Amino acid sequence: MAAASGPRTKWRKWDFRFLGVGWLMLHVVTTAAATAQSLAQDNLCYLTHGGSSETFTVNEAFPVESIIGTLQVAGNASETYGDIELRMADPEKAPLSIMPGTKDLVLRQKLDKEGEDGLRSVTTDVICAPRHTRDNDHLSITVPVRIIVTDANDNAPEFQGTPYFLNVSEITVPGTTVMQGIRAVDKDQPGPFSTVEYYVEDGPYSHLLTFESRLEGSLVLKDRLDYETVPRFTVTLRAQDQGNPPQSSHTTLVVVVHDADDQNPRFLAERYFVHLHENPRLGVPLDVKPSKIQAEDPDEEIRAPIKYTFNSDAPEYSYFELHPQTGHVTLQRPLPEGFALPVTLVVRATQKDNADRFTLTTLTLTGDKFLPHELHFLNSHYEARVLESTPPGQIVLSLHTTRATEKSVQFQLLENEDEMFAIQPTGEIILARRLDYEMKQDYTLQVLATDGKYNDVARVNVSVINVNDNDPQFRQGRYSFMVTDPHIKKGELIGKVDAVDADSNDTVQLSIDGPSARLFTINNRGEVRIRDLEFLNSTTSHLVVVATDDGVPPRKSTALVEVKFPEEAVVLGSVLAPKKDEGSFILMIVFGALLGSLLLIIITLTVYILKNKKYRNRLPVSINGNGHAPLNKVASIKIATSATNKLINPPRPLAGVENPIFNLSDSKSEDTTEDMSERETVPDSPEAAQTPNGAVPNGRVLEAVRNGHLGNGNIMNIQWPIGSIPRRVKKLSWEDEQPNKTALDPDVSVTPLTNGQSPDHNELTVYF
């Protein structure tokens, strides 16, 4: 029994453990599910992407009442089984709405990136709250919603400052910019939708104008204008952006062409005739047919006044007079017997304001006695000169015969090389093809005139006048040269350009222009050489070679030249290039040295002058005969009496001061200074004070001054000249105010020292 019960007990124990673990696991699962459900309930209305707001990008052309996007919030927003509720924070003003039962946002207002017809941007709030918690606002979440509006090509360019008018002269050269400032503005955001291009719409006059650049509103004349043909015209301009498809707008430009002096005067008739009757009256206008001689300026806006003259001074012209204003022809003097008629006169009509504008016609005069039975040219040889730039169709020369009024006369060119000329039935030779002076300069023609019965031949020589109608041409439009030597020097050849002129006898002058023109030089042979390495600052230099001919007017053309240098040449050029300011620097140093020397001299003179002025007031009284130092004027003086001899106490001289009177330096005073006992004494001797002539100046007696010691017998007598003592004493120092008035300076006074007593023997020692 015991053995059998053991296993049963064990199985029960295992059974008990299984039931405990299962219960635990069930509890954990149930708890986890409840926790997950609770967490899910807590995560409602939060954005699933982890952000704090929603942003949508919407084009401004997006239609209203369309869904722009879906809110990425956690929860079910359906009306039946939903666990969250979405609503706008301000439903009345919000440009968005939420489709019921969904998370979709619906656009309610129009968008416009420019902000004119709609909203430029949108920022609003959406409130998300779990169901059945409307009263608990703390459980709701506000989700900011932002809409970024992108641009659409919804605006067409608009021309500014319309309508456009343009006044232009008919002589304006094609290629000239005739108008600027045409501008159209596109209100779209910067980019292709707002980039405007300009065009001239196709039309009857669109070939006359074009835009210089599609992106710039500058009009250029394409073809020549003619006031007499088109005085005014209108073109249509188009401005469009670069959208796809593009937006465009149109405007008109009215062009008014102004007349210019571009035409020669014109006679009202091709030729004129006068029939002279017998004995015509002098000074009376002749009857000119088909009308009076008259020409006018075809430039309608100018209508320059015309002046009439004869075109020659041949003898036959001297009998007639042509009025310069009216064009009336009168007989100036009687025609002589045998005057050959008919005669043809050439009349010239010239604009008064421009002598280069003129035209010619003929006046043929016939008479009653002339019977033109035979046909002849009026001249057997004709000369004509024509510019090589004369257009075909222009009249070169008019030939006249004795039967100018008869239309039965026919003309024919017998010799016409290259068919360059043609002749009209009226006898006018015209140019048939364009001339070229470089090809041929002279033409010889023979003209036949016939009426079927009579014939006559005349020779015509036509000379071509050269016109500078060709620009100089370079053999290449662009040249490129490579310099390989880094040690290139001034004057070395870089390369050669070739320029030729198709005009005969024209020489070409070459010059250099451009940013690197100072680095190079060129001669008329086209050799480009180094001019100044100082301006070499780059490995690549660009210059423009200008070729100018010597024609009238001169013409020119250009070619671009590129020169490449090695880097070593650039470095060496900057180091070795001569400096322009070296001479200036040396000159500055020289002037600086001169200025410094001058300043040093001035300072030295100033110090010297101040030093001498300082000691000028310390002049000594005198120097004794033994070379003793002079006395100072402020020294104390003792006068000897009869009982005891009082010495004059000389002061110690100032060391190093030059004596201007005796040219002695005070530095010697140390060697010449004597003891006070060795000084001279002045004995009281009235006899000695008397002068040799017995006179006593100023009531006092001056004794002769003795040199040396007392009793040595060496006495020097000094007599002062009369009038040499100045009456006024100049005040030189503070010592002049002393009561004793001691004057020891011989330049000031020689007044002797005074004493309060009257000794028997008064002597005075005076030092010079």
From TrEMBL:
InterPro entries associated with the record: Cadherin-like_dom (IPR002126), Cadherin-like_sf (IPR015919), Cadherin_CS (IPR020894), Protocadherin/Cadherin-CA (IPR050174)
Region described as Disordered: 659-698, 738-768
UniProt KW keywords: Calcium, Disulfide bond, EGF-like domain, Glycoprotein, Membrane, Repeat, Signal, Transmembrane, Transmembrane helix
Listed Basic and acidic residues bias regions: 667-682
Lipid bilayer topology: Single-pass membrane protein
Primary localization class, coarse: membrane
Occurrences of domain Cadherin (ranges): 96-159, 160-267, 268-366, 378-474, 491-580
An annotated GO cellular component: plasma membrane
Pfam family, one: Cadherin
Compartments where located: Membrane
Any GO BP: homophilic cell adhesion via plasma membrane adhesion molecules
Lineage: superkingdom: Eukaryota
GO molecular function, one term: calcium ion binding
Transmembrane segments: 585-610
Protein name (database record): Putative family u69 unassigned peptidase
Native species: Ixodes ricinus
